[in-house]
Prior knowledge:
The complex is a heterodimer of chains A (708) and B (157). Chain A is 27% helix and 23% strand. By secondary structure, chain A is an alpha+beta fold. Chain A has a 7-stranded mixed sheet with strand order 3-5-1-12-9-10-11. Chain A has a 6-stranded mixed sheet with strand order 7-15-14-13-8-24. Chain B has helices at residues 23-30, 75-78, 82-93, 103-116, 122-128, 140-152, and strands at residues 4-8, 11-15, 49-52, 55-58, 71-73. Classes of the chains: A alpha+beta (708), B alpha+beta (157). The interface between A and B is large, with 58 and 53 residues.
Amino acid sequence: MKAISQSIRKKDHDPKIEGRSRYLADYNFTDSGKEILCGKLLRSRYAKAKVLSVKLPELPEGYLYVDRGDIPGDNNVNIVLDDTPVFARETVEYIGEPIGMLVGADEKEVERLLGEIEVEYEELEPVTDLRKADHAFFNYEFGHGDVEKAFAEADKVYEEEFRTGYQEQAYLEVQGMMAEPEEDGKMYVHGSLQCPYYVHGALARALGTGPDGIHIFQDVTGGGFGGKEDYPSILGCQVAVAAHKAQAPVRCVFDRREDMEFTPKRHPSICKYKMAVKDGRVTAVDCDVIFDAGAYSTLSAVVLQRGIIAAPGVYDIPNVHVTGRALKTNTVPCGAYRGFGAPQTFFAVETMMNHIAQDMGEDTIRFKEKHLVKQGDKTSTNGKYHFPVPLPAMLDEVDGLAQLRKKHEEYSKPQTGRCRRGMGLSVYFHGAGFTGSGERDIIKATAKLHKYADGTVEVLASNADIGQGVRTTFPKIVAHELNLPVEKVYYNHPDTARVPDSGPTVASRSLMTVGELLRRAAIKLRDIWVEGEEQEVEEHYKEPDFMIPFYLDRFEGDAYPTYAWGVNAVEVEVDTYTGLAKILGAYASFDVGTPVDYNIVMGQMDGGFLQGLGYASIEKMDYDSKGRIRNNSFTDYLIPTALDVPNLKVTLHVEEYPDGPYGAKGAGELPLVGAAPAYVEAIEQAIGRKLNHAPFNAEDVIAALEEK
Amino acid sequence: MDVITFTLNGKEVVYDGSAADRLLEVLRDTYDMKSVKCGCKEGECGACAVLLDGLLVNSCCVAVGAVDGSKVMTVEGFRETPQFAVLSAAFADLSAVQCGFCIPGMVLAAQAVLSQNPHPTEDEVREGLSGNLCRCTGYNAIINAVLNASKEGEGLW
């Protein structure tokens, strides 16, 4: 193990375990000693309706209501397109859409008054069936080779449809934001969030202040997983509009049901795959990917891009055609969740490959192995796998951990008896960092190091530690290059008034991209270091020279500089009487390059893997014909507990990436992506049925067994 | 019952509000015990777990009247103990704290397990922590940390 991989005590360990860390709900007063008003959202009761009137009860002194009429700037939340309003426009587009916010000193009184508001609606016909949705926010198409010819010449053509459901991030700390008008007329907005500069951009627009009129701070954040990528921009604008009108601090912290029902989650999907096989090899893939975007487009463009780029999987298929659409339904807008579109398409392609192999009477593992891409091969977008593809070695590692091949073969034979077993496999990648040229053209990250006269060094960057450890790993990199004890380097939670825009905390990019900027900045600082002087250095992102430029208009070029790789195996035992599946073992080899801190990386791998297993099995959430989500609590939407899994067996395979710090690549998202196909294949083996959707829970097992 | 008297982290306190008030809110708002987190307010997540006479309870599902005459311990009190020091060191060794939101409840759950059974098996630790949700770690590091603490803290429990 490299020296940089040796684990150190996390810098936020003590305050967190001692219960001293202050999360947003823990403020009694603002830091300037002011009382904090409580804001609660008035939400739409209908999935689609015209709001005719809002009749308020008589509001006591100090209580007020805000809606779109109170927005000083623009009623658009700056995300990708301009369709997400701060507060509803003339119509509401989903159940729970914020119409306005009621604000006052006493939370219970605010709740009581909120219940007395009378809203008059004119109901309109909502779209609550993805198959009937016809408005595409985004519509993409790309490919290479000659798919039609390959289908015409095929020995056999396979077609199948795959479905995946919602997944709720279920961070333990619910969403919450607070806005405080400051003495100098600026608005200070802070809370539980991943991307301070996203919130900054949104606020500048909604308040009409320009960038200098506001600043954003990230409080200690109790998990994000993508769920706090775009949403804090929306809630941040809402509390800021309220604070602007009240000229007092306003905080809004959701309750769990509100959070589960009305904040973004993973896009449900329908993926239609068609594959041609000739002489035992897949020669063409044609896939049509549909994501349920919900009522507003928010981040769906980028989620869909990542999903469709991954659609052909890790397989060398000469002819590729992919279409992808993010469709509007009158449901809660979907957004970012760890994996960002890729879990859906990897579920589809992995399961499709299994089904083809089974039909051909081939072992699914060997069938996948013979199609694996190699270094130098073309990617789905005519880019290149520039670096070694370690999947064969990783498969052997997982075989060693799980007895994968032996058990897979054993369980593939017909089974009888009440309890039956299965072993499933998935092989996949996760593109490291932003998709396409976003890093180069949009983010243009800058990071700084500030050295104080006493020789301590502060990292200045905008990446949020949401549990993944950048408050520890960033200083570790800098201390390593400066040959300082890590105690001399620190990284505080970012405030946009003090830190440059090093980009958002997304896309598994923080350590790989910003960590590398900091490494280079540290080298610069080392070279100019003068004892006793205050010094500052900064570093800007440069795209690696080897990259084939990416063109989004035709999905051509390197969508990612490099890839993190994953091989997962899951062994289950299914009780055919109850439908319950017990996970006997979950095994993985993950290549995220050099771990900058072994324990921290393993924490990411274990945590992501278990989220993936939840997505595969018990985490079921759906909306009804009226567009209402009913699984809005931990009672009805189950996430894995410590009892639901045995110890996960994870090993790291290190394929160093020369442009990441010490060889590190993107890590955070990878471990979630492959769990669902591995789990569902294991269930298939156990019950001897061909399956094509996830999550696959106990009810699904019973239903599948009852089918002839 | 006019007032509710209970021992909070070793000190006797007198609560003069309603007996029906939620213990979670009383601890956070009246006694400023901010280590006690609200994760769901319906007894599912364990973020608000405290020790009530040594047993783990979700404070969101306890009316304060029910703790009259009892001992309540939160991390503000538990962090002063040698058992906490061992658990904290074991958690630190495996970087078992990520976002941190579940951790105060989780540490008290670990204390509840070890005080009942100083040498638990992995399955017993999993059972004992199963009322406390963690979305970050996949539980491996936490479970392993508790098992390590039971060895390191030999004699403490």
